[in-house]
Amino acid sequence: MEVFLIKLLQFILSISLLVLLHEGGHMLASKLFGVRVEKFFIFFDVSIGKWKGKLFSFKPKHSETEYGMGWLPLGGYCKIAGMIDESMDTEQMKRDPQPWEFRTKPAWQRLIIMVAGVTVNFVLALFIYSMIMFHWGEDYVRVADMSLGMKFNQEAKSYGFRDGDILVGTDIRPFKDFNVDVYRDLSEAKYCDVIRGGEKVRVNLPGNINLLNMLKLTPQFVRPLIPAVIDTVYQRIPVSEDSKDSVVSPVWNSGLAKGDRIVAVNGKKIDSYNEFSEEIGVISDQLAATKSHRDSLALRRISIVVAKANTSKSKGWTAQNSQAALDTITTTVTPDCKFGFAVGSIGQLYANKVTHVSYSFLESFPAGVKYGWDVLSGYVSDMKYVFTADGAKSLGGFGSIGSLFPDQWDWHTFWMMTAFLSIILAFMNILPIPALDGGHVLFLLYEIVTRRKPSETFMIRAEYVGITILILLMIVANLNDILRWVGVM
Prior knowledge:
Layout: H1 2-32, E1 37-44, E2 54-58, E3 66-70, E4 72-80, H2 91-94, H3 107-135, E5 138-141, E6 150-152, H4 154-159, E7 166-170, H5 180-188, E8 191-196, E9 199-204, H6 211-216, E10 222-224, E11 230-233, E12 236-238, E13 246-248, E14 261-265, E15 268-269, H7 273-289, H8 293-300, E16 301-307, E17 326-332, E18 341-343, H9 346-349, E19 354-357, H10 361-382, H11 389-394, H12 398-403, H13 411-430, H14 437-450, H15 456-485
Parallel strand pairs: 1-3
Antiparallel strand pairs: 1-4, 2-3, 5-19, 6-10, 7-8, 8-9, 11-18, 12-13, 14-15, 14-16, 16-17
Helix pairs in contact: 1-3, 1-13, 3-10, 3-13, 3-14, 10-13
């Protein structure tokens, strides 16, 4: 429960900040051109019966704006006088136009008012990234410095990759750190250079590999190779992710020790922790499909063969360990296949190869802008997959977004996520969908070009269509979250 609350608090704080500044952009531009803002709300104050849906509200003396917070945490809004928006207040449009209303202002002023929100979000994201660069700098392990190389799935091997290849770069650019950009580049590249056996080798690629398949398949197209060498054996492990209760680790008294290398699981040889995880994933899927307690216990009874570190003259996980004494450990793991040990993480494996880049205050701005632009361009390029069946399944709602935040409060991660969400909010809002800022911008551009203003009846109908589209998208995204949670997707 504590983990859930920490994630929820970070999510609410981040979204509240972004909505506040987004709507603040609209409000500032409106005030600049003398347009009244009747309401400025964080979250929506949807009425239920006689209750107006306000958690609180106030109206400063001599101000025409009511400020407050609604109960429905799906965004926020500022109600601009004389404008057809999500409030669907059509009564105001029946009255005579007033000089302080949105509809009486020149089209160029109305355009600025509508783009002000997304402009604030774009600028905010770039500013946050810049300040992250200034305060923390960048820490990463270059892909070319991952000396153990990569582990590839069968599709990748069909193009010519081999386990242990060290990725260098593609015809698009050299690889930096290992993140989703590696997959994007490999999906669009004509070739990829790797280091194999100390020599550079070129692997030809088709240039149109499906990015979603690269990410969603198990195992994934490529991931860093992690040796199956035990780093830590825990005495106790938590009952569940959110629980403070714990049980004795299944392998605590098994003789498993730091430095031992796993070489087989249930009689199947493995060459890395990647393969170990894949085998355990198969068992987990089988456990989910079992219908009896006996079958469940049988599947949870797992044997692992380890090469004992204390009997080998060699260090690490290399082939020299083949002379090490083998030991078979049979244990019954927890229902969610927890063993109670950990292997070295990427950060531990390459702790001496971390690249740190510091930025002065002035240097941080171009670095932050470049980083933000790369995030935006990558997000935009991925949008083409949204219109596919797999893309629709990959949509996530509030649960997916909230899960991106860490289970412990970390300011660096919080601000990185806030900047990322700010870019998403800006991009999604500028899409030419009625009810979004982009829809209003589209109609304003039409008015400027043709010098013909769309009728109020058309605008009202368009708003209804846009709201319907947004509600359907929201239902699909949050339904996907529920289906993932219950294990259907």
